[in-house]
Amino acid sequence: MNDKSEIQELANLFTNYQKGFIYFAYSFIGDQMAAEDIVLESLMNYWENRYKLAPDSNIRAYILTVIKNKCLNYLQHQRTREEAESYIQASDMWELNLHISTLEAINPGKIFSDEIQKIVDEALITLPEQTRIIFMKSRYDNLSHKEIAEQMGLSTKSIEFHITKALKVLRIALKDYFPGFLLLLKLF
């Protein structure tokens, strides 16, 4: 066969069977554009492998098999994507439920109760003086990092370091109490 007759054969195959192949793919995957892409890729697959096939091969069956396999790959990919999305949604839902239950469990009256305030005071006493002063200015006097830095002649990075250091000590001291306490502590 010469090149011109092979190209004509491919054109005839495409013209005569394209709609049926697309309908076949679409009936399984339900996406018109993806079905058209699969059919085109399958025809290209046939064209690239035509010399490897036996001379008496059923070309339509070969192309249909390629389409079937590409549809299976497409659907398996869709399933994997949907499973991943479901997992992400479940994780998001779990996190949302955790936030709701934490908020429901928080009793603002207890957060600042005498017992907890005593633990906070004891933890603050263990801090180096400069760290304690910086933390108290931030949380109790509601000064910004910049304001504290200006008052104490330090950089804002240094202020952030001391506050982080104080929060670590408080996190350890209050670990058995309220999961949301440190979050609230950052707010006040």
Automatic annotation (TrEMBL):
Transmembrane segments: none
Gene3D superfamilies tied to this protein: 1.10.1740.10, Winged helix-like DNA-binding domain superfamily/Winged helix DNA-binding domain
Organism: Parabacteroides segnis
Domain RNA polymerase sigma factor 70 region 4 type: 119-168
All residue ranges annotated as the RNA polymerase sigma-70 region domain in the record: 13-79
Name of the protein in its database record: RNA polymerase sigma-70 factor
Entry keyword set: Sigma factor, Transcription, Transcription regulation
Matches recorded under InterPro entries: RNA_pol_sigma-70-like, RNA_pol_sigma-70_dom, RNA_pol_sigma70_bacteroid, RNA_pol_sigma70_r2, RNA_pol_sigma70_r4_t2, RNA_pol_sigma_r2, RNA_pol_sigma_r3/r4-like, WH-like_DNA-bd_sf
Pfam families: Sigma70_r2 (PF04542), Sigma70_r4_2 (PF08281)
